[in-house]
Amino acid sequence: xHKYEIIIYWSEEDQVFVADVPExxxxxxxGKTQDExxxxxxxxxxxxxxxxxxxxxxxxxxxxxxxxxxRVTNREYEKHLGIVSTxxxxxxxxxxxxxxxxxxxxxxxxxxxxxxxxxxxCPEQKVVDVLQALHLLLAFxxxxxxVGVDSRWLLRSLEQTYPALQKVQVDRTELSEQEMxxxxxxxxxxxxKIFQIPFHLHPMxxxxxxxxxxxxxxxxxxxxxxxxxxxxxxGAWPEEGRSARTDTLLTLRQDDQxxxxxxxxxxxxxxxxxxxxxxxxxxxxxxxxxxxxxxxPPALEIKSWERGFVPNLFAMLPTPxxxxxxANIYRLIRAQIEQKDLDSFVGSETAPGEYQVVMIxxxxxxxxxxxxxxxxxxxxxxxTGVSWSVLVDALGVETVPExxxxxxxxxxxxxxxxxxxxxxSRLHTILCSLQSHFPQFFTVGTFCDWVPRxxxxxxxxxxxxxxxxxxxxxxxxxxxxxxxxMKSG
Length: 489
Fold this sequence. Notes:
Blueprint: E1 7-11, E2 16-20, E3 28-31, H1 34-57, H2 61-73, H3 83-100, E4 112-117, H4 124-137, E5 143-148, H5 151-161, H6 177-183, H7 187-192, H8 206-216, H9 246-258, H10 271-275, H11 304-309, H12 320-335, H13 339-346, H14 355-367, H15 369-381, H16 388-394, E6 398-400, E7 407-409, H17 418-433, H18 444-455, H19 462-466, H20 476-488
Parallel strand pairs: 4-5
Antiparallel strand pairs: 1-2, 2-3, 6-7
Helix pairs in contact: 4-5, 8-12, 12-14, 14-15, 14-18, 15-18, 18-20
Protein backbone atom coordinates (compact mmCIF):
# COMPACT_ATOMS: atom_id res chain seq x y z
CA UNK A 1 0.00 0.00 0.00
CA HIS A 2 1.25 3.44 -0.91
CA LYS A 3 2.31 5.59 2.07
CA TYR A 4 1.48 9.29 2.08
CA GLU A 5 3.39 12.09 3.77
CA ILE A 6 1.42 14.06 6.37
CA ILE A 7 2.63 17.58 7.30
CA ILE A 8 1.41 19.11 10.56
CA TYR A 9 1.62 22.87 11.16
CA TRP A 10 0.04 25.53 13.40
CA SER A 11 -2.58 27.84 11.86
CA GLU A 12 -2.47 31.32 13.39
CA GLU A 13 -5.71 32.23 11.64
CA ASP A 14 -7.75 29.33 13.04
CA GLN A 15 -5.67 28.78 16.18
CA VAL A 16 -5.53 25.02 15.55
CA PHE A 17 -3.04 22.42 14.33
CA VAL A 18 -3.58 21.53 10.66
CA ALA A 19 -2.55 18.17 9.16
CA ASP A 20 -2.10 18.32 5.37
CA VAL A 21 -1.49 15.52 2.85
CA PRO A 22 0.41 17.26 0.00
CA GLU A 23 -0.03 14.39 -2.45
CA UNK A 24 -3.82 14.57 -2.09
CA UNK A 25 -4.93 18.18 -2.59
CA UNK A 26 -7.81 19.08 -0.28
CA UNK A 27 -7.13 16.20 2.08
CA UNK A 28 -6.48 17.91 5.38
CA UNK A 29 -7.79 18.00 8.95
CA UNK A 30 -7.29 20.02 12.09
CA GLY A 31 -7.30 19.57 15.85
CA LYS A 32 -6.45 21.25 19.12
CA THR A 33 -3.33 19.08 19.48
CA GLN A 34 -0.91 17.54 17.00
CA ASP A 35 -2.09 14.03 17.84
CA GLU A 36 -5.73 14.99 17.30
CA UNK A 37 -4.94 16.60 13.95
CA UNK A 38 -2.89 13.56 12.89
CA UNK A 39 -5.71 11.16 13.80
CA UNK A 40 -8.25 13.24 11.88
CA UNK A 41 -5.94 13.39 8.86
CA UNK A 42 -5.41 9.64 8.92
CA UNK A 43 -9.17 9.16 8.96
CA UNK A 44 -9.57 11.52 5.98
CA UNK A 45 -6.75 9.69 4.20
CA UNK A 46 -8.45 6.37 4.74
CA UNK A 47 -11.67 7.82 3.33
CA UNK A 48 -9.81 9.24 0.34
CA UNK A 49 -8.07 5.93 -0.33
CA UNK A 50 -11.39 4.13 -0.11
CA UNK A 51 -12.87 6.63 -2.54
CA UNK A 52 -9.97 6.09 -4.92
CA UNK A 53 -10.51 2.38 -4.84
CA UNK A 54 -14.21 2.90 -5.46
CA UNK A 55 -13.51 5.17 -8.40
CA UNK A 56 -11.09 2.64 -9.85
CA UNK A 57 -13.82 0.09 -9.76
CA UNK A 58 -16.33 2.39 -11.49
CA UNK A 59 -16.78 2.24 -15.21
CA UNK A 60 -17.73 5.14 -17.33
CA UNK A 61 -17.32 8.87 -17.03
CA UNK A 62 -20.88 9.31 -15.82
CA UNK A 63 -20.25 7.41 -12.60
CA UNK A 64 -17.16 9.50 -11.94
CA UNK A 65 -19.07 12.73 -12.54
CA UNK A 66 -21.85 11.62 -10.23
CA UNK A 67 -19.39 10.81 -7.49
CA UNK A 68 -17.73 14.21 -7.72
CA UNK A 69 -21.10 15.97 -7.70
CA UNK A 70 -22.16 14.10 -4.58
CA ARG A 71 -18.99 15.13 -2.77
CA VAL A 72 -19.54 18.75 -3.68
CA THR A 73 -23.20 18.94 -2.69
CA ASN A 74 -23.40 16.86 0.48
CA ARG A 75 -21.24 19.41 2.44
CA GLU A 76 -19.53 16.53 4.19
CA TYR A 77 -16.32 18.47 4.77
CA GLU A 78 -17.87 21.76 5.91
CA LYS A 79 -19.18 20.31 9.14
CA HIS A 80 -15.62 19.67 10.22
CA LEU A 81 -14.61 23.35 9.92
CA GLY A 82 -13.89 25.09 13.21
CA ILE A 83 -15.89 28.01 14.60
CA VAL A 84 -13.09 30.40 13.64
CA SER A 85 -13.32 29.37 9.99
CA THR A 86 -17.11 29.67 10.06
CA UNK A 87 -17.01 33.18 11.54
CA UNK A 88 -14.32 34.16 9.04
CA UNK A 89 -16.53 33.08 6.15
CA UNK A 90 -19.51 34.98 7.58
CA UNK A 91 -17.50 38.19 7.88
CA UNK A 92 -16.23 37.71 4.36
CA UNK A 93 -19.77 37.35 3.02
CA UNK A 94 -20.94 40.41 4.97
CA UNK A 95 -18.03 42.47 3.69
CA UNK A 96 -18.73 41.48 0.10
CA UNK A 97 -22.48 42.17 0.34
CA UNK A 98 -22.18 45.62 1.91
CA UNK A 99 -19.00 46.75 0.18
CA UNK A 100 -19.76 46.09 -3.48
CA UNK A 101 -23.09 47.90 -3.64
CA UNK A 102 -24.35 45.60 -6.42
CA UNK A 103 -27.65 44.92 -4.67
CA UNK A 104 -29.84 48.08 -4.67
CA UNK A 105 -31.89 46.69 -1.77
CA UNK A 106 -28.83 46.78 0.51
CA UNK A 107 -27.21 50.00 1.76
CA UNK A 108 -23.74 50.75 0.50
CA UNK A 109 -21.42 51.03 3.47
CA UNK A 110 -17.82 52.08 2.95
CA UNK A 111 -16.67 51.45 6.52
CA UNK A 112 -17.99 49.90 9.73
CA UNK A 113 -16.16 51.44 12.71
CA UNK A 114 -16.33 49.40 15.90
CA UNK A 115 -15.39 51.05 19.22
CA UNK A 116 -14.39 48.82 22.13
CA UNK A 117 -13.86 50.25 25.63
CA UNK A 118 -13.26 48.85 29.13
CA UNK A 119 -11.68 45.67 27.76
CA UNK A 120 -9.32 45.81 30.75
CA UNK A 121 -12.29 45.02 33.02
CA CYS A 122 -12.88 41.62 31.40
CA PRO A 123 -11.41 38.24 32.46
CA GLU A 124 -8.20 37.15 30.77
CA GLN A 125 -9.85 34.57 28.52
CA LYS A 126 -12.50 37.04 27.39
CA VAL A 127 -9.77 39.53 26.48
CA VAL A 128 -8.02 36.94 24.31
CA ASP A 129 -11.33 35.97 22.69
CA VAL A 130 -11.95 39.59 21.74
CA LEU A 131 -8.43 39.90 20.32
CA GLN A 132 -9.03 36.83 18.15
CA ALA A 133 -12.31 38.31 16.92
CA LEU A 134 -10.52 41.55 16.08
CA HIS A 135 -7.97 39.59 14.07
CA LEU A 136 -10.81 38.18 11.97
CA LEU A 137 -12.49 41.57 11.49
CA LEU A 138 -9.36 43.39 10.46
CA ALA A 139 -8.75 40.94 7.63
CA PHE A 140 -11.44 42.79 5.67
CA UNK A 141 -11.20 46.44 4.58
CA UNK A 142 -14.84 47.06 5.52
CA UNK A 143 -14.06 47.02 9.25
CA UNK A 144 -12.10 49.50 11.37
CA UNK A 145 -11.70 48.82 15.09
CA UNK A 146 -10.74 51.36 17.77
CA VAL A 147 -9.88 49.89 21.18
CA GLY A 148 -9.46 51.90 24.37
CA VAL A 149 -7.68 49.74 26.92
CA ASP A 150 -4.95 49.60 29.52
CA SER A 151 -2.20 47.79 27.62
CA ARG A 152 -0.86 46.27 30.84
CA TRP A 153 -4.01 44.16 31.15
CA LEU A 154 -3.69 43.00 27.56
CA LEU A 155 -0.15 41.80 28.21
CA ARG A 156 -1.15 40.03 31.42
CA SER A 157 -4.12 38.32 29.73
CA LEU A 158 -1.92 37.01 26.94
CA GLU A 159 0.70 35.74 29.38
CA GLN A 160 -1.93 33.93 31.46
CA THR A 161 -3.57 32.36 28.39
CA TYR A 162 -0.47 31.42 26.39
CA PRO A 163 2.35 29.96 28.51
CA ALA A 164 4.72 30.31 25.55
CA LEU A 165 4.53 34.09 25.97
CA GLN A 166 5.61 33.98 29.60
CA LYS A 167 9.16 34.87 30.48
CA VAL A 168 10.65 31.49 31.36
CA GLN A 169 14.36 31.00 31.91
CA VAL A 170 15.45 28.24 29.52
CA ASP A 171 18.97 26.87 29.42
CA ARG A 172 19.99 27.10 25.76
CA THR A 173 23.73 27.11 25.88
CA GLU A 174 23.95 26.51 22.15
CA LEU A 175 22.50 29.99 21.48
CA SER A 176 24.21 33.30 22.06
CA GLU A 177 22.52 36.01 24.11
CA GLN A 178 21.70 37.93 20.93
CA GLU A 179 20.19 34.83 19.30
CA MET A 180 18.06 34.10 22.36
CA UNK A 181 16.81 37.69 22.33
CA UNK A 182 15.98 37.47 18.62
CA UNK A 183 14.01 34.22 19.07
CA UNK A 184 12.14 35.30 22.20
CA UNK A 185 8.35 35.55 21.81
CA UNK A 186 6.57 38.23 23.83
CA UNK A 187 2.98 39.46 24.25
CA UNK A 188 4.03 42.65 22.47
CA UNK A 189 4.76 40.60 19.35
CA UNK A 190 1.23 39.18 19.49
CA UNK A 191 -0.33 42.64 19.82
CA UNK A 192 1.75 44.09 17.00
CA LYS A 193 0.17 41.60 14.61
CA ILE A 194 -3.35 42.73 15.56
CA PHE A 195 -3.12 46.46 16.23
CA GLN A 196 -1.72 48.38 13.28
CA ILE A 197 -1.51 51.77 15.03
CA PRO A 198 -0.97 51.81 18.81
CA PHE A 199 -1.44 55.28 20.28
CA HIS A 200 -0.57 56.15 23.89
CA LEU A 201 -2.44 58.97 25.64
CA HIS A 202 -0.32 61.31 27.74
CA PRO A 203 -1.31 62.06 31.34
CA MET A 204 -3.33 65.22 31.88
CA UNK A 205 -1.30 68.38 32.27
CA UNK A 206 -1.99 71.24 34.66
CA UNK A 207 -4.20 73.11 32.21
CA UNK A 208 -6.25 70.01 31.42
CA UNK A 209 -6.85 69.28 35.11
CA UNK A 210 -7.91 72.89 35.66
CA UNK A 211 -10.40 72.82 32.79
CA UNK A 212 -11.94 69.57 33.98
CA UNK A 213 -12.13 70.70 37.60
CA UNK A 214 -14.02 73.86 36.63
CA UNK A 215 -16.65 71.59 35.11
CA UNK A 216 -16.76 69.04 37.93
CA UNK A 217 -16.58 71.57 40.80
CA UNK A 218 -18.73 74.52 39.77
CA UNK A 219 -19.46 77.42 42.06
CA UNK A 220 -22.82 78.02 43.72
CA UNK A 221 -25.64 76.96 41.45
CA UNK A 222 -28.58 79.33 41.44
CA UNK A 223 -31.55 77.46 42.83
CA UNK A 224 -34.72 77.80 40.80
CA UNK A 225 -36.75 77.34 43.95
CA UNK A 226 -37.25 74.93 46.75
CA UNK A 227 -38.02 71.31 46.16
CA UNK A 228 -41.52 71.09 47.57
CA UNK A 229 -44.68 69.26 46.67
CA UNK A 230 -47.80 70.91 45.26
CA UNK A 231 -50.09 72.71 47.59
CA UNK A 232 -53.34 70.98 48.49
CA UNK A 233 -55.89 71.40 45.76
CA UNK A 234 -53.29 72.26 43.09
CA GLY A 235 -52.38 70.15 40.09
CA ALA A 236 -50.16 67.24 41.10
CA TRP A 237 -48.69 66.36 37.73
CA PRO A 238 -45.64 68.14 36.30
CA GLU A 239 -46.72 67.16 32.78
CA GLU A 240 -50.12 68.20 31.51
CA GLY A 241 -52.04 65.44 29.77
CA ARG A 242 -49.88 62.75 31.35
CA SER A 243 -51.04 59.17 31.14
CA ALA A 244 -53.38 57.99 33.90
CA ARG A 245 -52.62 58.07 37.58
CA THR A 246 -50.99 54.69 37.94
CA ASP A 247 -47.42 55.85 38.80
CA THR A 248 -48.03 58.26 41.67
CA LEU A 249 -51.08 56.56 43.10
CA LEU A 250 -49.31 53.21 43.32
CA THR A 251 -47.85 53.99 46.74
CA LEU A 252 -51.17 55.26 48.07
CA ARG A 253 -53.01 52.15 46.98
CA GLN A 254 -50.37 49.88 48.45
CA ASP A 255 -50.85 51.70 51.76
CA ASP A 256 -54.61 51.24 51.45
CA GLN A 257 -54.12 47.53 51.11
CA UNK A 258 -51.96 47.45 54.21
CA UNK A 259 -54.39 49.49 56.31
CA UNK A 260 -57.93 49.66 54.99
CA UNK A 261 -59.08 51.83 57.87
CA UNK A 262 -56.65 54.69 57.33
CA UNK A 263 -55.92 57.17 54.57
CA UNK A 264 -57.97 58.08 51.54
CA UNK A 265 -59.84 55.41 49.64
CA UNK A 266 -58.92 55.74 45.95
CA UNK A 267 -61.39 54.70 43.25
CA UNK A 268 -60.31 51.92 40.88
CA UNK A 269 -58.56 52.89 37.67
CA UNK A 270 -60.95 52.76 34.76
CA UNK A 271 -60.07 51.27 31.37
CA UNK A 272 -60.22 54.74 29.86
CA UNK A 273 -57.59 55.94 32.33
CA UNK A 274 -55.23 53.07 31.54
CA UNK A 275 -54.99 53.91 27.86
CA UNK A 276 -55.92 57.57 27.67
CA UNK A 277 -54.93 60.87 29.20
CA UNK A 278 -56.43 62.91 31.97
CA UNK A 279 -56.41 66.58 32.87
CA UNK A 280 -54.40 67.54 35.96
CA UNK A 281 -55.86 65.82 39.02
CA UNK A 282 -55.74 67.24 42.58
CA UNK A 283 -54.03 65.22 45.29
CA UNK A 284 -56.19 64.08 48.18
CA UNK A 285 -56.29 66.48 51.10
CA UNK A 286 -54.59 63.87 53.30
CA UNK A 287 -51.34 64.10 51.31
CA UNK A 288 -49.09 66.75 52.88
CA UNK A 289 -46.76 68.85 50.73
CA UNK A 290 -43.04 68.06 50.89
CA UNK A 291 -40.95 70.32 53.11
CA UNK A 292 -38.82 73.02 51.53
CA UNK A 293 -35.34 71.78 50.62
CA UNK A 294 -32.45 74.04 49.63
CA UNK A 295 -30.99 72.47 46.49
CA UNK A 296 -27.82 74.57 46.71
CA PRO A 297 -26.73 74.73 50.36
CA PRO A 298 -23.58 76.68 51.27
CA ALA A 299 -21.73 73.43 52.02
CA LEU A 300 -21.85 72.60 48.31
CA GLU A 301 -20.65 76.01 47.13
CA ILE A 302 -17.11 75.51 45.86
CA LYS A 303 -15.06 78.68 46.11
CA SER A 304 -12.88 79.85 43.27
CA TRP A 305 -9.68 79.47 45.32
CA GLU A 306 -10.61 75.87 46.10
CA ARG A 307 -10.88 75.06 42.39
CA GLY A 308 -7.73 77.06 41.72
CA PHE A 309 -5.64 74.88 44.01
CA VAL A 310 -6.50 71.57 42.30
CA PRO A 311 -4.41 72.13 39.12
CA ASN A 312 -1.30 72.30 41.35
CA LEU A 313 -1.92 68.60 42.07
CA PHE A 314 -2.01 67.58 38.39
CA ALA A 315 1.04 65.32 38.68
CA MET A 316 -0.95 63.08 41.07
CA LEU A 317 -4.13 63.16 38.94
CA PRO A 318 -2.97 61.83 35.55
CA THR A 319 -6.29 60.71 34.03
CA PRO A 320 -9.80 62.20 33.69
CA UNK A 321 -11.11 59.28 35.75
CA UNK A 322 -8.77 60.23 38.59
CA UNK A 323 -9.89 63.86 38.46
CA UNK A 324 -13.56 62.86 38.47
CA UNK A 325 -13.08 60.55 41.44
CA UNK A 326 -11.14 63.30 43.21
CA ALA A 327 -13.92 65.84 42.64
CA ASN A 328 -16.71 63.52 43.78
CA ILE A 329 -14.94 62.47 46.97
CA TYR A 330 -14.04 66.07 47.78
CA ARG A 331 -17.68 67.12 47.52
CA LEU A 332 -18.71 64.24 49.77
CA ILE A 333 -16.15 65.21 52.42
CA ARG A 334 -17.03 68.88 52.14
CA ALA A 335 -20.76 68.22 52.49
CA GLN A 336 -20.17 66.59 55.89
CA ILE A 337 -18.60 69.69 57.40
CA GLU A 338 -20.85 71.47 59.87
CA GLN A 339 -21.79 75.07 59.14
CA LYS A 340 -19.84 76.38 62.15
CA ASP A 341 -16.61 74.79 60.85
CA LEU A 342 -17.10 75.68 57.19
CA ASP A 343 -15.42 79.10 57.30
CA SER A 344 -12.22 77.74 58.85
CA PHE A 345 -12.18 74.88 56.35
CA VAL A 346 -12.60 77.08 53.29
CA GLY A 347 -10.63 80.12 54.50
CA SER A 348 -10.19 82.86 51.98
CA GLU A 349 -8.22 83.54 48.82
CA THR A 350 -5.41 85.17 50.80
CA ALA A 351 -5.58 82.87 53.82
CA PRO A 352 -6.50 79.37 52.59
CA GLY A 353 -8.18 76.96 54.97
CA GLU A 354 -7.73 73.29 55.68
CA TYR A 355 -9.23 72.30 52.33
CA GLN A 356 -5.69 72.24 50.96
CA VAL A 357 -4.74 69.58 53.50
CA VAL A 358 -7.70 67.46 52.42
CA MET A 359 -6.88 67.88 48.73
CA ILE A 360 -3.24 66.89 49.21
CA UNK A 361 -4.20 63.76 51.13
CA UNK A 362 -6.77 62.87 48.48
CA UNK A 363 -4.25 63.43 45.67
CA UNK A 364 -1.71 61.15 47.38
CA UNK A 365 -4.43 58.55 47.83
CA UNK A 366 -5.38 58.79 44.14
CA UNK A 367 -2.00 59.13 42.44
CA UNK A 368 0.11 56.99 44.79
CA UNK A 369 -2.26 54.35 46.21
CA UNK A 370 0.56 51.93 47.09
CA UNK A 371 2.40 54.55 49.12
CA UNK A 372 -0.69 56.21 50.64
CA UNK A 373 -1.10 53.69 53.48
CA UNK A 374 2.46 54.20 54.65
CA UNK A 375 2.21 57.98 54.32
CA UNK A 376 -1.03 58.07 56.31
CA UNK A 377 0.41 55.73 58.93
CA UNK A 378 3.50 57.93 59.22
CA UNK A 379 1.38 61.06 59.66
CA UNK A 380 -0.57 59.55 62.54
CA UNK A 381 2.61 58.43 64.28
CA UNK A 382 4.45 61.78 64.11
CA UNK A 383 4.56 64.62 66.60
CA THR A 384 1.48 66.69 65.84
CA GLY A 385 3.25 69.97 66.50
CA VAL A 386 5.89 69.78 63.75
CA SER A 387 5.54 71.40 60.33
CA TRP A 388 4.27 69.39 57.39
CA SER A 389 7.64 69.96 55.67
CA VAL A 390 9.14 67.47 58.15
CA LEU A 391 6.79 64.86 56.72
CA VAL A 392 7.83 65.76 53.16
CA ASP A 393 11.50 65.44 54.07
CA ALA A 394 10.83 61.95 55.42
CA LEU A 395 9.83 60.83 51.92
CA GLY A 396 13.23 61.64 50.42
CA VAL A 397 15.19 58.62 49.23
CA GLU A 398 18.79 57.82 50.15
CA THR A 399 21.14 55.16 48.83
CA VAL A 400 22.00 52.28 51.16
CA PRO A 401 25.78 51.74 50.91
CA GLU A 402 27.38 48.42 50.08
CA UNK A 403 24.27 46.66 48.80
CA UNK A 404 24.12 44.49 45.66
CA UNK A 405 21.83 44.96 43.90
CA UNK A 406 21.65 48.57 44.99
CA UNK A 407 19.05 49.25 47.69
CA UNK A 408 17.56 52.51 48.94
CA UNK A 409 15.77 53.81 52.03
CA UNK A 410 13.70 56.72 53.34
CA UNK A 411 11.67 57.65 56.39
CA UNK A 412 9.01 55.13 55.39
CA UNK A 413 11.02 51.99 54.65
CA UNK A 414 14.52 50.86 55.44
CA UNK A 415 14.97 48.86 52.24
CA UNK A 416 13.60 49.86 48.84
CA UNK A 417 14.20 48.46 45.39
CA UNK A 418 15.14 50.77 42.54
CA UNK A 419 11.56 50.81 41.23
CA UNK A 420 10.11 51.53 44.68
CA UNK A 421 12.70 54.25 45.29
CA UNK A 422 11.75 55.90 41.99
CA UNK A 423 8.09 56.13 43.03
CA UNK A 424 8.95 57.56 46.46
CA SER A 425 11.29 60.07 44.85
CA ARG A 426 8.58 61.18 42.46
CA LEU A 427 6.12 61.69 45.31
CA HIS A 428 8.75 63.60 47.29
CA THR A 429 9.48 65.86 44.32
CA ILE A 430 5.78 66.60 43.76
CA LEU A 431 5.16 67.50 47.40
CA CYS A 432 8.28 69.68 47.48
CA SER A 433 6.94 71.59 44.48
CA LEU A 434 3.79 72.38 46.47
CA GLN A 435 5.76 74.25 49.12
CA SER A 436 5.17 77.58 47.39
CA HIS A 437 1.40 76.98 47.15
CA PHE A 438 0.86 75.67 50.67
CA PRO A 439 0.84 77.61 53.98
CA GLN A 440 3.77 76.63 56.15
CA PHE A 441 1.81 77.07 59.38
CA PHE A 442 -0.16 73.85 58.81
CA THR A 443 1.25 71.19 61.09
CA VAL A 444 1.22 67.42 61.00
CA GLY A 445 -1.61 67.63 63.52
CA THR A 446 -3.85 69.22 60.90
CA PHE A 447 -3.13 66.30 58.59
CA CYS A 448 -3.83 63.88 61.44
CA ASP A 449 -7.31 65.31 61.86
CA TRP A 450 -8.20 64.60 58.24
CA VAL A 451 -6.39 61.31 57.53
CA PRO A 452 -9.09 59.02 59.04
CA ARG A 453 -11.85 60.81 57.10
CA UNK A 454 -10.00 60.84 53.77
CA UNK A 455 -8.76 57.26 54.16
CA UNK A 456 -12.31 55.92 54.22
CA UNK A 457 -12.70 56.64 50.50
CA UNK A 458 -10.23 54.04 49.23
CA UNK A 459 -9.91 50.27 49.16
CA UNK A 460 -6.23 50.46 50.05
CA UNK A 461 -6.31 53.05 52.84
CA UNK A 462 -9.57 51.91 54.43
CA UNK A 463 -7.64 50.13 57.17
CA UNK A 464 -6.34 53.50 58.35
CA UNK A 465 -9.89 54.70 58.91
CA UNK A 466 -10.68 51.52 60.83
CA UNK A 467 -7.65 52.07 63.07
CA UNK A 468 -6.27 48.57 62.51
CA UNK A 469 -2.63 49.56 62.28
CA UNK A 470 -2.45 53.21 63.39
CA UNK A 471 -3.70 55.41 66.15
CA UNK A 472 -6.55 57.71 65.21
CA UNK A 473 -6.66 60.10 68.15
CA UNK A 474 -4.52 63.24 68.06
CA UNK A 475 -3.77 66.00 70.50
CA UNK A 476 -5.84 68.78 68.97
CA UNK A 477 -4.85 71.34 71.59
CA UNK A 478 -1.16 70.81 71.00
CA UNK A 479 -1.64 71.16 67.27
CA UNK A 480 -3.61 74.42 67.61
CA UNK A 481 -0.97 75.87 69.90
CA UNK A 482 1.77 75.02 67.41
CA UNK A 483 -0.19 76.64 64.57
CA UNK A 484 -0.68 79.78 66.64
CA UNK A 485 3.05 80.01 67.39
CA MET A 486 3.97 79.57 63.72
CA LYS A 487 1.44 82.22 62.61
CA SER A 488 2.62 84.71 65.19
CA GLY A 489 6.24 84.05 64.37
